[in-house]
From TrEMBL:
EC class of the enzyme, as a word: lyase
Entries under HAMAP family matching the protein: HOA (MF_01656)
Protein name: 4-hydroxy-2-oxovalerate aldolase
Gene it is expressed from: dmpG
Organism: Paenibacillus thalictri
Annotated catalysed reactions: (S)-4-hydroxy-2-oxohexanoate = propanal + pyruvate; (S)-4-hydroxy-2-oxopentanoate = acetaldehyde + pyruvate
Residue ranges of every copy of the Pyruvate carboxyltransferase domain listed in the record: 7-257
InterPro entries in the record: 2-IPM_HCS-like (IPR050073), 4OH_2_O-val_aldolase (IPR017629), Aldolase_TIM (IPR013785), DmpG_comm (IPR012425), DRE_TIM_HOA (IPR035685), PYR_CT (IPR000891)
Length: 343
């Protein structure tokens, strides 16, 4: 079946959503969600540990089920959708990419911090050799000025990426900032441009629309917002809004609504919402996937998690530095005890 699509939606609940449920997906859950997404005609479904291939570790959180088992299961139930994987060089390696390709994935997204695109060269090249749709994913895009972002995106393009994404990992970008970033990439690149939003400031949808207006054609969504922090742009809402705008995604809006309600909602420990902690992520520009780590550290040291998150933002801590969350919490607790002793 051929589908006309103006916008290609990548559904990330089975990868970014893994952060929100502490990487506890079961094979049965992944099968049910992937099958329903396939029936709703979603073009790409990303399946991996929240931190990408090989993310299962004490540092990032142990997966309940081996991700290769989840990927294999998702591939086996999809006839229309392609399964994609995320890989952060240094966490995942070429070996993991080869393994995923053998299982039948059709897309690999190679993610780096926004100023570190150079570490993606080999992984992008290998993904292309494997015949995968290959995406460069520039995380924490709010941390770099537009010129730097363009420079890094051009590197990913030069390594062979088919699409380069502006990734608002902290949900910190405002619509005009998304627009200027996407416009700059559109002017400088020859490949597709994409946008991945987080909803910490309640701007994921507005930012996705700003990205589309500025020329982005690849947009990420997560059903029922299931993603790190306050979650991502809600796929079923995105599909409905784009339909109203006359922009074709090829997605069956009613089937998306049904799967959101009947299959995904019961998986959530709590509804995805903008609470004080997820709001602080966007406000202070902190990696969305730090949320549960900071909340756990706050509990352990008897602190307000916002104090940890704000200081993480001030220190410009980025993905891969999760160990600093506990260190920082211990330091704040020591400082507080010291001040109390002096008082
Ligand atoms: C830790 C990887 C991260 O969750 C990737 C991503 O989705 C983002 O940076 O927003
Ligand atoms: Mn994300």
């Amino acid at each position: 079946m051929s589908t006309m699509r103006d916008i290609i939606v990548t559904e990330v609940a089975l990868r970014d959503g893994s952060h929100a449920i502490s990487h506890q997906y079961t094979t049965d859950q992944v099968v049910r969600v992937a099958k329903a997404l396939d029936q709703a005609n979603i073009p790409y479904i990303e399946v991996s540990h929240g931190d990408g291939l090989a993310g299962s570790s004490l540092q990032y959180g142990l997966s309940r089920t081996h991700e290769m088992e989840l990927i294999e299961a998702a591939v086996s139930v999809c006839s229309r959708s392609k399964i994609g994987v995320l890989l952060l060089p240094g966490i995942g390696t070429i070996k993991h990419l080869n393994e995923a390709a053998k299982l039948g994935v059709g897309m690999a997204r190679i993610a780096t911090h926004v100023t570190e695109a150079d570490v993606s060269a080999q992984h992008i090249a290998r993904s292309k050799e494997l015949g995968l749709v290959t995406v460069g994913f520039l995380m924490m895009s709010h941390m770099a000025p537009v010129g730097k972002l363009v420079e890094q995106a051009k590197l990913m393009e030069s390594y062979g990426a088919d699409t380069v994404y502006v990734v608002d990992s902290a949900g910190a970008l405002l619509p005009y900032e998304v627009k200027e970033r996407i416009e700059a990439l559109k002017e400088s690149l020859h490949v597709n441009v994409g946008f991945h939003g987080h909803n910490n400031l309640s701007l994921a949808m507005a930012n996705s629309l700003a990205a589309i207006e500025a020329g982005a054609t690849w947009i990420d969504g997560s059903v029922r917002c299931l993603g790190a922090g306050a979650g991502n742009t809600q796929t079923e809402v995105l599909a409905a809004v784009l339909d109203r705008l006359g922009i074709q995604t090829g997605i069956d809006v009613y089937k998306m609504m049904d799967l959101a309600e009947e299959i995904v909602a019961p998986i959530l420990n709590a509804p995805q919402e903008i609470n004080r902690d997820s709001l602080v992520l966007g406000y202070a520009g902190v990696y969305s996937s730090f949320l549960l780590h900071a909340q756990r550290a706050a509990k352990r040291f008897g602190l307000d998690s916002r104090d940890i998150l704000v200081e993480l933002g001030q220190r410009k801590v980025v993905g891969g530095q999760e160990d600093m969350i506990v260190d920082l919490a211990a330091e704040i607790a020591r400082r507080a005890a010291h001040n109390e002793a002096l008082a």
